[in-house]
Amino acid sequence: MSAPFRAPKGLAGVSVADSAIAKSEPDGTLVYRGYAIEELAEHAGFEETAYLVLNGRLPRREELRAFEEGLAAQMPLPEKVLEIMSGLPKGSHPLDVMMTATSALGSLEESRTHAEQMESVEAKMGPLAANCQRLPSGQAPVRPKRGVGFAAGLLQTLTGQEHTELEAWVFERVLMFYVEHDLNASSFTVRVVASTLADPFAAATAGIASLSGPLHGGANEAAMRMLLELKDPGAAAPFVAKEFAAGRKVTGFGHRVYKKFDPRARLCKGYLGELLRAKGDDGLLRLCDALETEMWKRKEIPPNLDFYAAPIFYTLGIPIPLYTPVFAASRVFGWMAHYAEQVADNRIIRPDATYTGPTGLKYVKIGER
Ligand code: COA
Prior knowledge:
By secondary structure, the chain is mainly alpha-helical. The protein has a three-stranded antiparallel beta sheet with strand order 1-2-3. The two termini are 37 Å apart. It is globular, with a radius of gyration of 22 Å. 57% of the residues lie in helices and 3% in strands. A hairpin with a 2-residue loop joins strand 2 and strand 3. The chain binds coenzyme A. Coenzyme A binds at residues 10, 215-216, 219, 249-256, 301, 304-306.
């Protein structure tokens, strides 16, 4: 057998699958099924975008209605899941609660077909995000309002507040940017799990686990904590200098693909400006801008979506520990698109590793070691 091909660390620059779902490019473009995200942000809504990502084309009116009704019908969380979530320790990280609940749904809905399970997990992840902090804290569950749309309903249940049209519109855009991003770490994880023919709940649970780390989805929560700690634009330069001197990465900056700019971050920066101007205080934007300038001066590293999604969520009143659950509630649609694409042309994903350990060792009895 010939020596296996040695892939670079982190699989950087290696194509491991054919995919027709989405494509991000180093020059700052991102398309979903052929449509630039700028085009979708201007004209489409969340459900239309999710349908597009899942089905490969924009829905006709009656298809969109059926999709929305299907999601609404699947949203209620079973009592048993609410009980499991309520039984977790107060102070559990909401994303851990969400992971446990998604896994539990897998056993409760084991007998359903994979297509039914996919629709169920897509619909339920929003209500899970809205309840994953409340229930372990002993609060009553919240249920999404019927007939207000996925994004507006989720925002209302996350915050318990009414929002202006602009606020709901911006939140919907952020969800649309989170919905899909070709072979990011969590979507790759989902494809690995799907390739074993495990069910959609198992794949989504693994997707959440992969998303939780600060190098991936956890970055939005970490970015907000950093911004709150820094407070003042004047703190940006010394902070960046300190992080570089310590060899630490600055949260919310950098991307495997985008080297000039992240198109989602660029759009979100504009939306943040609009939100803050409507509130009459753009201090948070000035702080973001100062960090952005400093990171570019030092190493030409642009901000990513998480960097600007975080202050948008903060301005909308979403509790900080719910930022990554919100990401998951949107990305689950992309995960399911990858799940379906993987199983449609499957071969188990089972790479090789270059063995660097010892060989030929002789067993030594336990008392003689
Ligand atoms: N802060 C400081 N330096 C950074 C950086 C950051 N956030 N992101 C990348 N760099 C540096 C790297 O250290 C590397 O420097 P070197 O060539 O001198 O070693 C260089 O920029 C290139 O990094 P790259 O290979 O592009 O990173 P990656 O593809 O392995 O990792 C991320 C990409 C996103 C994991 C990484 O940028 C990161 O950890 N960012 C912070 C976490 C974050 O915001 N995650 C959300 C991503 S959407």
